[in-house]
Amino acid sequence: MHASPPLPHASATKPASTTPDRATDKLEIPFEKYQLDNGLTVILHQDNRLPLVAVSVWYDVGALHERPGRSGFAHLFEHMMFQGSPHVGEDQHFKILEALGASQVNGTTSFDRTNYFETVPSNALETALWLESDRMGFLLESVTKKSLDNQIDVVKNERRQSTESRPYGLVRELIIQKLYPAPHPYHGNIIGSMKDIGSATLDDIREFFKTYYSPSNATLVLAGDIQITTATSLINKYFGPLQGRPKPTRPQPLRPTLAKAEEIIFDEPVGRLPKLSIVWPGPKAYHKDSAALDLLSHVISGTQSSRLDARVSYRDSIAQSVTAAYFETFAGGQFQIDLVVQPGRNIDEALTAVDEVIASLDSQPITQAELSRAKNAQETRMLFGLEQLGGFGGRTEQLQSYQYHFGDPGRFTWDINRYRGVTLDSLEQARRTWLSETRLIVKAIPSASSSPSPHAQATTHQAAAKKEGIR
Fold first, then answer.
1. pLDDT of 86-108, one tens digit each?
2. Residue 255 counted as domain residue
3. Integer Cα distance of 185 and 256 in angstroms
4. Nearest-CA neighbor of 405 among 342, 321, 467?
5. CATH number of residue 199's parent domain
6. pLDDT in tens, 383-441
7. Is residue 256 assigned to a domain?
8. Is 22 exposed, middle or buried (0-12, 13-18, 19+ CB in 10 A)?
9. What is the 3-state secondary structure (H, E, C) of the chain?
10. Domain that holds residue 402
11. Are 274 and 347 in contact (CB under 8 A)?
């Protein structure tokens, strides 16, 4: 355990905390925000109803920051962060937290950021903060060629499981590579290529750590059973002494566009049923049209009464599964429809059905009832997230996301109001703007070795999360 020097001074950049306002129907997550002298941004949310504290650390590094030849590097380094330090034994991070009764212990890498989180009993907060500060400040001292090679093998195996051996995994990678052609940093699809993963060296690890794993490039959020003064003291104790380094500039790649419509026939090696994917490039996260596109995806698919589900799943029995979703990231978005074809049905009739449903929105416009259902579903999801302190979609991650994109954690009311403010006119305008004829169509046809038997079992297609990440 590293020594605990005297408490450093925290710079006085603390804004007033936000508070709920019933009169104006504001739905906020109250917080305190300040910054340490070494650049670490700290956000504190006090909720003493349960004896639990969620701890979340975001580093401003993801696929967005990767150079050509270094795809998958942010994700590889996420694995390295669990390997131990001079003060924490090898592979002991999880074990220490689990012995304390921690839950939701994980780390993920997305196109835009890397995060680490855990929820601990409130009397174990100090240990959790020590562990997070220890790897932020001292991990590099224990990185060896052996530990690097071990994690390279782990990540290569993860790529096999998540992409190469997973039904339609290579289709997803193909779509990302077509939407974000090299040298766009998203081209590696977060997981990266086998070649790039295998080429990582100790010097690469050292450079990566020194560039991105510094206090100035991180945000720490605590949510739950804390006292602000006590939490601040503990944060100063464990994070204040860490060396500050300049925050790297966040890349600003242009949002790619498709030059023309493209259709690809893909020889699917794993999936046993044909799959149709139709993708339109979309705007970046929190664009003025992104809420409308998100709601449009709910209107098109997701319930028995949704336009596409009603047609291809319940009326014509073309689809085994169907999803529509809008994914948004810092450097671009995508509106995507995926449909797995029933045994005995044809992928071309599936495409015809999708096109007819989309075209019917001209003659049979979306109704206010459909829009209201979509808004209610979205708002329910957002409010459900507020019931959780941490973990995927909890309050810590909401605060982190708004801080990442706006430098302002107090954007929940604004966020929910941008959905409430979508009208039939703005929904239609977004549809006409983004769902054009310039689109990518991928027809994944099972190869002979993976074709289904007459009694093929149902294949489940899970919609990806709106903010995608990889563990």
1. 899 888 999 999 999 999 999 99
2. no
3. 11
4. 467
5. 3.30.830.10
6. 999 999 999 989 999 999 999 999 999 999 999 999 999 999 999 999 999 999 999 99
7. no
8. exposed
9. CCCCCCCCCEECCCCCCCCCEHHHCECCCCCEEEEECCCCEEEEEECCCCCEEEEEEEECCCHHHCCCCCCCHHHHHHHHCCCCCCCCCCCCHHHHHHHCCCEEEEEEEECCCEEEEEEEEHHHHHHHHHHHHHHHHHHHHHCCHHHHHHHHHHHHHHHHHHHHCCCCHHHHHHHHHHHCCCCCHHHHCCCCCHHHHHCCCHHHHHHHHHHHCCHHHEEEEEEECCCHHHHHHHHHHHHCCCCCCCCCCCCCCCCCCCCCCEEEEEEECCCCCCEEEEEEEECCCCCCCHHHHHHHHHHHCCCCCCHHHHHHHHHCCCEEEEEEEEEEECCEEEEEEEEEECCCCCHHHHHHHHHHHHHHHHHCCCCHHHHHHHHHHHHHHHHHHHCCCCCCCCHHHHHHHHHHHHCCCCCHHHHHHHHHCCCHHHHHHHHHHHCCCCCEEEEEEECHHHCCCCCCCCCCCCCCCCCCEEC
10. 262-470
11. yes
Q: Please check whether residues 195 and 68 belong to one and the same domain.
A: yes
Within a domain: 4? no
Average pLDDT of the chain is 90
**Helix 424-434 with 290-300: angle, nearest 10 deg:** 90
Place of tokens 């979205």: 378
